[in-house]
């Protein structure tokens, strides 16, 4: 399995073992968490290798949030990257505790945050992935403090199986 990490994280795939562990040794599975879901979609869409399953874990779905939202997020990030990441990861962990993410902290930069916040989730890319025979699965937590999980669920169920867990947050706990 090829795995793409979330924004400001590295190596957190183990947090999602209930979902991804059965595919760890399968080279035909690609998975990504949050910002990593963006990277996973781009990897599968732009690649030519066979992919049987694309697993999107709490994809960074900010469609419709507007330029003011993006601008504000970028200003806060540039002003104090450390404080921004602390609050971002606290919200990502909710309703669990942020300490679950502490050991996976990694560097994050402006361009990654901007891509995360502005990725348009183009229908044509997801349909193109489907046409190649790739099964798309999306997992979301209804208590997500990062993205609008209900809106994301409505969008992603058009492209495959989408699961919305009522008691989980962004890290699906």
What is the topology?
Blueprint: E1 2-4, H1 17-20, E2 29-33, H2 35-46, E3 53-57, H3 67-79, H4 81-93, H5 99-102, H6 110-118, H7 123-131, E4 135-141, H8 149-156, E5 161-165
Helix pairs in contact: 2-7, 3-4, 3-6
Task: Please explain how this structure is put together.
It is a single chain. With 173 residues, the protein is α/β, with parallel strands linked by helices. It contains eight helices and five strands. The protein has a five-stranded parallel β-sheet, covered by helices on one side. Strand 1, helix 1 and strand 2 (29-33) form a beta-alpha-beta unit. Helix 2 crosses helix 7 (123-131), helix 3 (67-79) packs across helix 4 (81-93) and helix 3 (67-79) packs antiparallel against helix 6 (110-118). The protein is globular, with a radius of gyration of 15 Å. The model has no long low-confidence stretch (mean pLDDT 97).
Produce a short descriptive summary:
By secondary structure, the protein is α/β, with parallel strands linked by helices. It contains eight helices and five strands. It has one domain (2-165): Alpha/Beta hydrolase fold, catalytic domain (Rossmann fold, 3-Layer(aba) Sandwich).
CATH fold-level name: Rossmann fold
| Average residue pLDDT | 97
Rg measurement, Å: 15 Å
Report the order of strands and helices.
Answer: EHEHEHHHHHEHE
The termini sit apart by: 22 Å
Report the portion of residues in β strands. 5-15%
Give the class-level CATH name.
Answer: Alpha Beta
Strand order of the largest sheet: 1-2-3-4-5
Unreliable sequence segments = none
Major β-sheet profile? 5 strands, parallel
CATH superfamily: Alpha/Beta hydrolase fold, catalytic domain
Q: Helical amount among residues, as a percent range? A: 40-55%
**Total separate domains:** 1
Coarse morphology: globular
Number of strands: 5
Count helical runs. 8
- Architecture, CATH level 2? 3-Layer(aba) Sandwich
Category by helix and strand content: alpha/beta
């Amino acid at each position: 399995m090829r795995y793409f990490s979330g924004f400001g994280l590295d190596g957190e795939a183990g947090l999602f073992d209930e979902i991804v562990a059965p595919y760890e040794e399968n080279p035909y599975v690609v998975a990504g968490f949050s910002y990593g879901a963006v990277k996973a979609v781009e990897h599968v869409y732009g690649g030519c290798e066979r992919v049987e399953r694309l697993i999107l874990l709490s994809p960074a779905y900010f469609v419709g949030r507007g330029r003011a939202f993006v601008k504000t997020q970028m200003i806060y990030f540039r002003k104090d990257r450390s404080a921004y990441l602390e609050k971002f990861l606290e919200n990502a962990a909710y309703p669990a505790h942020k300490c679950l993410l502490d050991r996976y902290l990694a560097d994050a930069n402006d361009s990654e945050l901007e891509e995360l916040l502005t990725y348009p989730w183009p229908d044509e890319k997801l349909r193109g992935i489907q046409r190649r025979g790739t099964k798309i699965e999306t997992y979301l937590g209804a208590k997500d403090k990062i993205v609008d999980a209900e809106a994301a669920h409505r969008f992603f169920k058009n492209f495959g199986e989408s699961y919305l867990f009522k008691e989980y947050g962004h890290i699906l706990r």
